[in-house]
Amino acid sequence: MSKRVVAGAISLAAIMAAAAMSQTATTGAVAKPAANVARGKYLVVNVGNCGFCHTPLDKKGQPIKTEALQGAPLMFKPTIPIAGWMPVAPAIAGLPGWTDEQGVEFFTTGKKPDGSMAAPPMPSFRFNNADAAAVVAYLKTLK
Fold first, then answer.
1. How many CB atoms within 10 Å of residue 43?
2. Residue 74 class from Cβ within 10 Å (0-12 exposed, 13-18 middle, 19+ buried)?
3. Cα(71)–Cα(143) distance, rounded to whole angstroms?
4. CATH class of segment(s) 33-141
5. pLDDT of res. 49
6. Per-residue pLDDT tens digits for 1-25
7. DSSP code of 66?
8. In this predicted model, what pLDDT tens digit does every residue of 42-89 receive, in sequence order?
């Protein structure tokens, strides 16, 4: 391969990388590849079972699919008093009021944007950064 072709390919790659970084810098948005969103959905639905608490149920005890992850009263209570118990699971579809970075922080450390920790009965998930980013990418696609 000639030096000219190699130099041209390197220049093209550098221009494309600079353009991508420029777009990210000006919009603050990073593309969420479909595979990352699919991984996040798998983690939310099959690993975290988030819908168990965060999706309301109908009168027959079935999840209301049109209100998935919109928050719901919990169908269970502790048998002994537990400080900070949350009787209602908050809406997590879209992660309202949270940035992507705050969502990743929460799913890797359990720390909410206000600095407090997740309240019971929310388990202390400790996803790695890639899985936390996938969960956030999926939840941000929901409304």
1. 19
2. middle
3. 12
4. mainly alpha
5. 94
6. 444 433 333 433 333 333 333 333 3
7. G
8. 999 999 999 999 999 999 999 999 999 999 999 999 999 999 999 999
pLDDT digits (tens, 9 = 90+) for 94-103: 999 999 999 9
Residues in the chain: 143
Q: Look at the block and give the residue holding tokens 């220049």.
A: 11
- Identify residue 46 by its one-letter amino acid code: N
Q: How far is CA 123 from CA 50, 110, 117, in A?
A: 10, 9, 11
For the chain, the first-to-last Cα distance in angstroms comes to: 51
Decide if 109 contacts 89 (C-beta within 8 A): no
How far apart CA 99 and CA 106 sit, in angstroms, is: 11
CA atoms 15, 21, 26, 27: torsion sign: positive
Largest CA distance in the chain: 76
State the pTM of this model: 0.74
Residue 33's pLDDT is 84
